[in-house]
Structures are given as C-alpha cells and as structure tokens.
Design brief:
heterodimer; A: 532 residues; alpha/beta; 7-stranded mixed sheet; 30% helix; 20% strand; B: Spermidine Synthase, Chain: A, domain 2; 3 domains
Chain lengths: 532, 508
C-alpha cells in the first residue's frame, strides 16, 4: 500500500502526532530487517473449502493427532507423554512451534515475539505448579506450601515506567501530577477491585481466578459481562483521565481491546485474578529474556519428537470410528487416521478445517473473535541516552502514555545486562483500526518499521541511530477478544464438549488469551482422552 | 587625532589580558603544586621579571614598530589563550608541569613587556611625553585592577579556568585585529596578512572554547572545589580526578570514590580483616569492582597470593593509572603486578556466565547502590551467584556504605548476605573523606571476628590492638529494631533505602 509518511503515521499514531513528526525531515534511514513468520497466505487456503484426495500410500495411523503446536497443543502432548502415552503427533502449519509464545534467538540474549511473562500461579493451580517445578523455576515449597519462584526468574525491579510529556516516571499508573480527585478515584477503584478479590460464591468459588473455568458463574458476577469496562467505570463515577488510561492500557495490553470494547468482567478479571486476597500485591511475574518462549522450548525438549512443523491440516473429517486428518506438506497431501483429534487451533478456523462443522455447528465459531497485532524486535547496538537526570531509568516494561502502542520490553533486563547491545520488543495492538487485519497485511516491513521508530522517537531521539535491525511479526489473529456478552454467552461451554471424536483445546475456550488458559485446556483434553 | 584615545582603550584591554594570564598561572600552580603563597609569589616575580626582559628587548625593535606591535599582541593571544588548557593537559605529569608553567609565564611576561614600550613609541609623535607616560601607565594599572577584581568574582566561578583563558585569548586577538585599523597609516605592509593571522587565531581559540567541555563541563568546574585534572565520560560513567591541596580525589558520576589523603584507611580496613578471617594461606583472590587499584595494592602485600582476578566494568577505570600517572603512584602500580588479571565486565553478568576456579578471598568493592544497575550487585541473587566462585571456607568482604548516614542501607546489605546463607560480621571504621564507613565480612561457614592483621603485613592505619573495636557498633549505628527488607532482584529494596537515606544530605 503506498502511503506518504504522514498518512501512514496518521493511521497508526494519530493525526496530531503525525503532524508533529512530519514537520522535521521527511526521508529517514530505516535499519534492515524483515517480516517474520505467520503464513497468512497458507492459512487462507483453508477458506477455499477445496476437497483433497490423499494418495493411498500417504496414509498413516496414530491414536491421537493434535492440530496446532501452540501452548494448548504442546501442553496436551506434554501431558499425554508424561502419562506414558506415546502414539501421538502434533502438526503445526508454521515453520516454528509455539504460536503467540514464540521467541527469537539472538545476541546478547533471546527475545520474545509475543507473550513474555507468567504470573506465579496460586498453589491451587497444581498442574501449572508441576510444570514450573519440572522447569526448575520454583523454590522448594514454603512452610505453609507457598509457591515462590526463584529470584532469577522473578521480574527484576524496576519493572515498569511510563513516558509522559517528555519524561519517564516510575510505575504504570501515572502518579506525577495526579490531583487529589485522581488519587481518590484510584483509591475507590482499588476498593472495588478488592471487593471482587474477596468475593466467594455459595460454592466458595472466587469471582475471578485462573483458569476461567474455576470462576464463579454466579449471576452477580456474570452480569459484569453484559456491559463494557468503560460503562462500568462510568457507573462507578470513575472518570479520572489517568485512571481511565490505566484501565484502557490494561485492556489493550491483555486483550488488544480498548476500554469501551472490553467486557467489564474481563477488565476486572485482569485486576483481580492474580491477587490472593485484598491488600496483597499482585502475583509476581516469571520472566526470562525469551518470555514465554521458555515454555515452548521446554515442551519441545520433552515432546519435540512428536511435533511436525510445516504440516498444515487442510481437512479434518470425522468417521465412524475415528477421524481422518488430511495435511498439506510441502505440496504433497498426507493423511493420518486417528482415534481422536485435539483441535488446538483458534476456534474461528474450526468450520473451515472440520468437515461437517458448518452443516451442523456444535457451537457458533463466529462468536470467537480475534484482533490483530504487530510486534517488532529492535536490535540496538547500545542503550538510548537518558535525557534528564530525573528520568526514571530503563525498566523491563516501558510504556508510552500518549501512544496507541503498548511500548516495549527490554530483553536484557532480567539477565542484569545493563550496558551495551540489547533487544527491545515493541507491541502494537491494532484496536483502533477498522478492518485492522486486512490493513495489517497490506503494510510492508518498511511501513511498520517507520511507525514503530516514529513512535519510539517520542521518547528516544537516538533510536534510529541505535537500531541495527528491526524485524516485524504480524499477528493476524493474535488474541481472543473478550468483548461484552462473549465470555458468559455459553459458547465457550459448548466448545468444551467434543464434536464426535474431536476435542477442542485452545486459550480461546477460556475467553482470554493467557498461557494459563491454553495450558489448562490442553491438559483438560489430554486427561479426557487418557480417561477413555 | 582620534587614534590616541582608542589606543588607550587598547592598552586597557591588553593590561586586563596580561594580568588574567598571570592570575591563571598562579591559580593553576597553587592547585597543583600547593602552597599558594609561594606559588603566587614566584609567578608574580617571574612575570614582572619577564616584563622587564620584554621592555629591555623592545630597544632592539627598530623598524615597522606598528607591525611588530600587532604581531606581539597576536603572540600573546596564542600563548595566553591556550595557557590554561595546555597546563591542564600536563597536570597529570608533574615532572613536566613546572617547566611548562614557568615557560609560559615567562613568554607571556616578555611579550606583554614588549607591548607597552612599543605602543608608547608609536604614540610619541602624537602626544607630549608627559601626557603619554601618565595616560598609558594609568590605563595599564586600571586594567590590572579590573582584571584582578573580575577574575575571582566572575570568571573563575562562571567560566572555569580553561574557558577564561581561551576567552581572553580571543579578546586579545580581537584587539590586535582592531589595532590594524587604528594603526593603518603606520603599518608598512602586510596589513591583510596580519588580519588573516588574527582571524585564524580567533577561530582556533573559539574551537577550543567550544570543545573545552570535552575537558570539563562548565557545571563541573563550579561543582568541584578542587581543580579537575582528568575527566572522561566513559561508556559507563563520568570519571573525574581532582587535585587539591590535600591530594587527589576520584569521582564517579559526581560521587567521591576516594581521596588520596585518607584512602589508605578505607582500603586497609577493606582488605586486611578478610585476610585475617581466611584460615589457610590465601592463594586465589577475587576482586569485584575496585578498578582504582587501591585494594589491589593492599592485597599484593600478601606473599602467599598467587592469582588475583579483578572484574571491573569500566576499562577506563582499570586504565586510569596510565591516564593519570599520579594515581599509578598512589596504588603502587598495582596493575603491573603479574599476579593481577583484569576482566572488564559487569560483575553480575561475569558471575552468571564465566566459569572460574574457586577463590579463597573475595573483595567486593562496588560504588554505593545509588541506581538499579548497581543495586543488583548487592542482591541475594548476586551473593548466590558468588557461591559458585568460592568454597565453604572462603572469606568475603563487601563495602556496605555508611552505617551512620545510611543505617538501613548498611544493615540491609548485612541482612541480604544472611538471607543468602552467609555468616556475616559487619564492621566499620572512620574515613574522614567519607565519614563513618562500613563493611561486612562473610563466609559460608561460621567464623570468628578477626583480631589482628596477619604477621608481616605493613599498615599505615590499622594497629595491633584496634581490630576488635571495629566490630563494636555504637548505639546510633547498630542494627535497628525495625524489620529490614532483604535486597532482591525483584524488589531492589536497597536502592530505595539508599535513595531515601542519602537524599537527606543533599544540598540542592
């Protein structure tokens, strides 16, 4: 798509910013780099609904086929294998496993391409604790069974800073310049949050906890899903600009949605689900340079022999006593006859891949909506220069208050590498745009790089000079969107039921795009298969 | 004739410039060589004597007096203008300093001494001798008064020595160029050439004026009491060495690291107790930080030591003994000892990524934890990483800031070492430049407080009986009753304690 720099920046970063940015020079140098991954074109073959004839010699038999090597699929395979179940194969259409938890390998450290942290789980989430123990991420249990992650994996301070009107401040909520009223509303907001943290229904369930399947379905709680988080704030009289920004940032960060697009249930879920009891700190984050790529790498170390990359399931056909999976592999059609299939791809693809789904839908797949993101990794030869002595220093998460992006995380932070080359991972959820997904794939690397660098330049005048390489990942369907009336509409519960011999396992079924959800549904389905 | 009054103004400015150079030389020499009475006395004497030499030499100038006059002014502009930066660059090497200093003073004095007689001869046809002498000398002395008042009140505090010197060089050259118009009828030839020379000199001085912040910044010149003799923005920090009456001092990012006046107190107290704690013959020693080489000087006193691994972030620090030879003398050229092996790396990353045989003694001498990058070097994670480089009986010492000025910070470091599984014995001493200063001895196995320095080790500070008293904390520095947070990577509690505590002492 040919656009002037100003048109491009107006689209992504807003007209006032574009006007200011374009007053200076026009043609600026771009570092080298490329578009990484996501085969949108391959994926779209599915939509054509073709029929495929697999040559007789190309059929094989497996007890279980897992379609999709994201966290859900890998978790299912990990569970099966750890229970001694070997007759399984995981097929993945991309060249790399991991889905949105993928990461890149580089110097001085690896870096994430998507999800980049996991809050320390509660002890109740025993399966996840088992995984973390297996990965040696946890300390021995405390005297009362408390879960503590090892120091080197707990997000190092300083965790967050925010850039506002030319200066960096500590934290994510903008305290600098907050009025008495702002502070009062901030207090009131957390009083509301604390009320929900302490909530228990008649069965003793929390309102918000991970996994979502363990949350209370009490009407008082699910009623929150019927309105937007913006409306909920308005109802509570919370109109402080910086509080609204803070909540909006949370929605964009966790869901890729704006405040007014996010279900109030999902908004409160973000603030409540990782706090044990009111007054406690939120559970600390486990992170490493490659982010949640560390879980992908661990799963691959355990079940990598079961994973076939560049294998695309083009047709999944339920039969009398099993399922036939047709795959396109390097231009050749291959078939797998399986007893069970775990469908661990995004839910919206189910009608395209599963034969008979459209004719008699077990659930309305169109209710599962996703949003588009792009992520850029900037490889820097050195650190940006601190402009003011009072600027809060480079943190793990660095947020730009005035930007529609989410800012960037610093890959070297956790390793204590505070000088010299680093990699910054810049996140941009396309929540403001109409037809964002189509647009995203119309832009080329240079255009996206220009958006990213222009945005970063607000805070770092030297970013172009320092960036030696800038690669871009376009995530067409990055995250499930918990808009109002989705999470508690009933569609997720339907998707938890198998369709003939096909089981669905994906973070989509949780309704929020989180590692814990993908992991939970992967294990849920694996256990169901094992129990038969 | 309009020329005469303007030439008196010329005399006035020349006089100011001349005296400024003299004052600069006097100030610089008293900074470096100390004893300002002696230094000013010798500088003034040399300068006046040189002026006499110049006046005498003026009789040998017969032709083209006006041309010679302008040329002399330009020469003063060059030598005077660059005098302070030139002296600045020779600071570090004291053996040359005196030669350069008195050479410059003598040249400037001679040239200034030439100026007035030449000017009087130029003006002698236009005025009575009586008027001429009275006015020229009057303006000369008024200029001297103005210079002597402006120099301490305005120029040194606002511009610093380097810029003052360069600024007056430019003024001097400008006056010389202006003189080519005033004296145009008397100048025989080469007027344009003189003006071009003048312009070149001004440009060179102006470039030096702009670039002089490479040497020191305006702010620094007024920030440091003593004179800055070395400054460099390394990749990691701003390094400054000053020289004053009591000796040399090193600053990193504006924070004093040592003063040569009393650093031996700090470094003896840092090194000798930990060597007394180690029970065997220490062979392998690890030094983390300590790029000034002063801890090395103390460590090298132990003949049993065979291998010293020093890890310091900044190559500009570990090379500072070469850049400032006086510091090499101070650390007894400790980096030249063949037992010393230097690695330039962040100690945290080094501990995490580099394998090394275990060390008997570890000396941890980082700057105070005033930012997060330094704070990580005092965390449980750091001390846990250190365990891979030591044995259960190894002895460790950590500099732990002031237990008086930053009591919580001091005890936070001790608590952090304990939380990481070490036996810890905090102690302190007095270092006048710093105040009451603290350290922590640590080992993975229980140990007794050391009672004396090992036999045969020479010290300037620690005596035979004092070591036990270093472990007796007075009430105002002992471990506070309130709970103290352990410093971890994910809370950086120490940086917050430290900032809170030291902020109380900030002047601005």
């Amino acid at each position: 798509m040919t656009l002037s720099r100003r048109e491009l920046l107006t689209l992504f970063l807003g007209a006032p910013f574009a006007f200011a940015a374009c007053r200076e020079t026009s043609a600026k140098r771009l570092p080298e780099g490329e578009i990484i991954g996501q085969s949108a074109n391959i994926g779209h073959i599915l939509r054509e609904g073709r029929t495929f004839e697999v040559p007789q010699a190309n059929w094989e038999t497996k007890k279980v086929v897992i379609v999709g090597a994201g966290i859900a699929g890998l978790s299912a395979a990990w569970r099966l294998k750890s229970k001694g179940f070997e007759d399984v194969v995981v097929i993945e259409l991309e060249k790399e496993a991991g889905g949105t938890s993928r990461s890149g390998v580089g110097k001085p450290v690896n870096y994430p391409w998507g999800a980049h942290y996991l809050p320390v789980p509660f002890a109740e989430n025993a399966d996840l604790v088992t995984l973390l123990d297996e990965m040696s991420l946890l300390e021995p249990r405390g005297p009362a069974g408390e879960i503590h992650a090892k120091e080197e994996f707990l997000c190092r301070e300083p965790e967050e800073r925010v850039f506002y009107k030319g200066r960096w401040y500590e934290g994510l909520y903008l305290n600098a310049g907050a009025s008495q009223e702002d502070k009062r509303q901030y207090g009131q907001f957390y009083a509301e949050v604390n009320k929900w943290i302490n909530f228990r229904d008649a069965k003793g369930r929390r309102a918000f906890v991970l996994p979502v399947a363990h949350c209370s379905d009490d009407a008082e709680v699910t009623a929150l899903d019927k309105l937007s988080f913006a409306d909920w704030l308005t109802q509570k009289g919370l109109n402080s600009e910086r509080l609204q920004w803070y909540c909006d940032y949370a929605c964009r960060d966790d869901y890729g949605l704006k405040l007014e697009e996010t279900s109030a249930w999902a908004g409160l879920f973000y603030f409540c689900s990782r706090v044990k009891k009111s007054g406690d700190e939120s559970q600390p984050f486990i992170t490493v340079p490659e982010g949640n790529g560390q879980f992908v790498n661990h799963f691959i170390a355990r079940v990598g022999d079961k994973v076939r990359k560049d294998w695309m399931a083009v047709a999944i056909e339920p039969k009398e006593n099993g399922v036939e999976v047709t795959c396109l592999v390097d231009g050749t059609l291959r078939g797998i006859k399986a007893e069970k299939v775990v469908f661990a791809g995004p839910m919206f693809t189910a009608p395209y891949a599963i034969r008979g789904f459209r004719e008699a839908p077990p659930f309305d797949a169109s209710e599962f909506q996703h949003n588009a993101w792009f992520v850029a990794n900037l490889h820097l030869k050195d650190r940006p220069v601190q402009r003011f002595r009072t600027d809060f220093p480079l943190a793990w998460d660095n947020v730009l208050y005035e930007s529609p992006s989410l800012g960037y995380v610093t890959a070297t932070h956790q390793k204590g590498i505070d000088y010299g080359p680093t990699t910054l991972t810049y996140y941009y959820p396309m929540c403001a745009e109409q037809n964002a997904r189509t647009k995203l794939f119309d832009y080329d690397r240079d255009q996206i790089a220009e958006v990213c660098l222009s945005d970063m330049e607000r805070a770092h005048k030297d970013i172009r000079e320092l960036t030696t390489r800038l690669d871009v990942m376009r995530w067409g369907h990055a995250m499930i969107s918990p808009r109002p009336n989705f999470i508690w509409s009933g569609v997720r519960q339907k998707a938890m039921e198998p369709y003939r011999s096909i089981h669905f396992a994906h973070t989509d079924i949780g309704g929020v795009a989180l590692f814990e959800e993908a992991f939970y549904h992967g294990l849920r389905v694996a256990d169901k298969i094992l129990s038969n | 004739m309009k020329r005469a009054p303007l030439l008196f103004l010329n005399v006035f400015i020349i006089a100011i410039c001349g005296l400024i150079y003299e004052l600069l030389a006097g100030t610089l020499s008293s900074y470096v060589l100390g004893d300002s009475v002696t230094q000013f006395s010798i500088i003034i004497g040399t300068y006046l004597f040189a002026m006499g030499v110049g006046s005498y030499l003026s009789r040998f100038v017969d032709k083209n007096i006006a041309n010679r006059f302008v040329e002399v002014e330009l020469a003063v502009a060059v030598v005077g203008g660059f005098s302070a930066p030139l002296l600045f660059l020779t600071f570090a090497n004291l053996s040359y300093f005196a030669i350069v200093l008195y050479g410059i003073v003598f040249i400037i004095g001679t040239l200034v001494g030439l100026e007035i007689p030449l000017l009087m001869r130029i003006l002698k046809d236009e005025l009575d001798f009586k008027d001429l002498v009275s006015r020229v000398l009057a303006f000369d002395y008024i200029g001297a008064l103005v210079a002597s008042l402006l120099f301490p009140i305005f120029f040194v505090p606002r511009l610093g020595l380097n810029r003052t010197s360069l600024l007056f060089g430019m003024l001097n050259a400008a006056v010389a160029i202006w003189g080519t118009w005033l004296l145009e009828p008397l100048l025989k030839k080469h007027i344009t050439l003189l003006r071009v020379k003048g312009a070149i000199i001004i440009i060179l001085l102006a470039i030096a004026f702009i670039k002089s912040d490479r040497l020191t910044t305006l702010a620094e010149d007024s920030l440091y009491v003593d004179n800055i003799i070395y400054s460099k923005s390394s990749h990691y920090q701003r390094i400054i060495v000053t020289k004053g009456k009591t000796g040399y001092a090193l600053f990193l990012n504006g924070n004093l690291q040592f003063s040569s006046f009393d650093e031996y107190r700090y470094h003896e107290a840092l090194v000798h107790p930990v060597f007394s704690v180690f029970r065997g013959q220490p062979k392998r020693v690890l030094v983390l930080g300590g790029g000034d080489g002063l801890a090395l000087r103390e460590i090298e006193k132990y003949p049993s030591v065979e291998y010293i691994q020093l890890v310091d972030l900044d190559p500009d620090m570990t090379n500072i003994s070469n850049a400032v030879p006086a510091l090499g003398e101070l650390n007894h050229h400790s980096f030249q000892d063949p037992r010393v092996h230097v690695t330039n790396a962040d100690a945290f990353v080094w501990l995490d990524t580099v394998d090394a045989e275990p060390f008997d003694v570890a000396v941890i001498d980082f700057p105070d934890p005033n930012n997060f990058a330094l704070g990580k070097l005092y965390t449980t994670r750091f001390y846990n990483l250190l365990k891979k480089k030591i044995r259960p009986d190894s002895a460790i010492v950590v500099q732990t800031t002031s237990p008086l000025m930053a009591r919580m910070s001091f005890w936070c470091i001790a608590s952090t070492l304990e939380a990481a599984g070490y036996s810890v014995k905090p102690y302190y001493t007095t270092v006048p430049s710093f105040g009451v200063w603290g350290y922590a001895l640590a080992s993975l196995s229980p140990f007794d407080e050391p009672s004396k320095v090992r036999d045969g080790i020479e010290t300037k500070f620690i005596n035979a009986g004092m070591m036990p008293s270093m472990f007796e904390f007075p009430k105002d520095t002992e471990r506070p009753n309130e709970p103290i947070e352990v410093n971890r990577l994910d809370n950086q509690a120490l940086v917050r304690y430290y900032e809170e505590e030291w902020r109380r002492f900030e002047q601005y």
